[in-house]
Amino acid sequence: xxxxxxxxxxxxxxxxxxxxxxxxxxxxxxxxxxxxxxxxxxxxxxxxxxxxxxxxxxxxxxxxxxxxxxxxxxxxxxxxxxxxxxxxxxxxxxxxxxxxxxxxxxxxxxxxxxxxxxxxxxxxxxxxxxxxxxxxxxxxxxxxxxxxxxxxxxxxxxxxxxxxxxxxxxxxxxxxxxxxxxxxxxxxxxxxxxxxxxxxxxxxxxxxxxxxxxxxxxxxxxxxxxxxxxxxxxxxxxxxxxxxxxxxxxxxxxxxxxxxxxxxxxxxxxxxxxxxxxxxxxxxxxxxxxxxxxxxxxxxxxxxxxxxxxxxxxxxxxxxxxxxxxxxxxxx
Amino acid sequence: xxxxxxxxxxxxxxxxxxxxxxxxxxxxxxxxxxxxxxxxxxxxxxxxxxxxxxxxxxxxxxxxxxxxxxxxxxxxxxxxxxxxxxxxxxxxxxxxxxxxxxxxxxxxxxxxxxxxxxxxxxxxxxxxxxxxxxxxxxxxxxxxxxxxxxxxxxxxxxxxxxxxxxxxxxxxxxxxxxxxxxxxxxxxxxxxxxxxxxxxxxxxxxxxxxxxxxxxxxxxxxxxxxxxxxxxxxxxxxxxxxxxxxxxxxxxxxxxxxxxxxxxxxxxxxxxxxxxxxxxxxxxxxxxxxxxxxxxxxxxxxxxxxxxxxxxxxxxxxxxxxxxxxxxxxxx
Lengths: 332, 332
Description:
2 copies of one chain form a homodimer.
Chain A: E1 5-10, H1 15-26, E2 31-38, E3 46-49, E4 52-55, E5 57-58, E6 69-72, H2 76-88, E7 92-95, H3 111-114, E8 124-126, H4 130-146, E9 148-156, H5 164-178, H6 210-222, E10 229-233, E11 242-251, H7 257-263, E12 270-272, H8 284-287, E13 293-300, E14 307-315, H9 318-331
Parallel strand pairs in A: 1-2, 1-6, 2-5, 6-7, 7-8, 9-10, 12-13
Antiparallel strand pairs in A: 3-4, 9-11, 11-14, 13-14
Helix pairs in contact in A: 1-9, 4-6
């Protein structure tokens, strides 16, 4: 890739957008020009990139002239409306929203797993759901070794997954409670401080949420495994920025903890943190702001056959979003 | 039962002990004399019962003379050492610790499920693990209808389960973080504020914790179902006093959401709270200080056959401990 790419970040003032700009800088992505884009409301704000102040521009249909790569993270509606304009202008879009993830013309990529799929793109590539990406970082190596059949998972998702306003809402609620003031939920339907909400994304007629079905639907595409099944319960917890997932996975072939540990050792992007005797296991607080996901609490499942129970954690804004998106851009 | 029972509460200054005294009063248990007992360190403190101040006595081998019922909630070590003295003195012990739960001579009781087992007692009755009791409030009616085979569960357990010191630790950590002071974990091995810990109770050689195996072991006894299997991941979350459990349960017979809802409607001690369209589902914050457990998010499991996914929440100090113990005493 020649230097001096013009890179647009759509949603530059959001939690993921801000992280994308940091990741571009930290990984020395060959950015010639950074173009931070956001809604009219946020236009005029500034971001810092390589020590320089860059003014956020309003996102319009004409924003993408001369743009090589456009990283979108401003929700499915914005992607739906503006990604086609970016493609038309000649940019390659890496989209962090759910808009194109199930579109057969759009590769859905976790670089460590199916990086080769990028070559099939037609102008747009999709970044998977955060909980799915983090879970697959541990599940995929196990799948390669033992052949995964199905997964039961329950998540512990940080407020960063909802965005910058949710981070502020948790902080505000904690301050209000500490000061004895009443709590006014606004981003979430109920108080999130000192509570957990079994409600992430909108409900479907089946009773599952859209978020809960992403692991099955997206993992099938990413792992090239159309028969994969996953029953997931997604839960928002009062944690600021890393997700954790409790996973029970059933495999085609017999498994052992020893083999699983071997398989999960030295995997790029994944750390094995599994020494219960020393109180060492993945924790969202410690994995926050780290590129690598962590897996631990590995044990032989005592209710399913040929199955393992384990615990994965990963920074939702990094591997769950900004890092993975920039890694996709690096593959191009 | 004639009036004027002398009731000892062992661990009267702990989180569960304090709640036991409130429950005795609220349910108009026929207490003639209340005898609050605790360690030498806490002796001399006072508790309030029916508007009167009662002084906490030091627990000794001779504390139980004239006691009819002794409610123990001061940890397994204290139960092991002192319950035999209570029995010898003629008291009936209802023990909230894990000490006697797997002892075949000790009935393990959830009154709504196996209240009839109380008659087999030989002086000691055991109160089940809090997460198990709350889960079974929803699982047992489903078992009666469909025949449960196995369960995969992940818990979201409040700090109250660890005790009064843990409640204080969460509060202190939140204050320290808000004030920009460093956090000093002491009750838990890691910070609990804005974090989740996949670590409740001590680790076994299998990699499961003792807490995680309680659901399988205790549910087998309570449901009279020796082949029942449960793979559980127990996680501590920064919630003050109610537990939540994400459950995937596989049954012998075909299930439907409609039938499950019917089965779970009107069950004593359980409320069906399952209207996702109105953002209504069980929440630990709202179930706190309530006697009834709540079940919701009921859906047909999309990874297991003949299976349901659902979400249960219950006050850990009440149904998970003090209420259930007093309900057992009421059966006597």
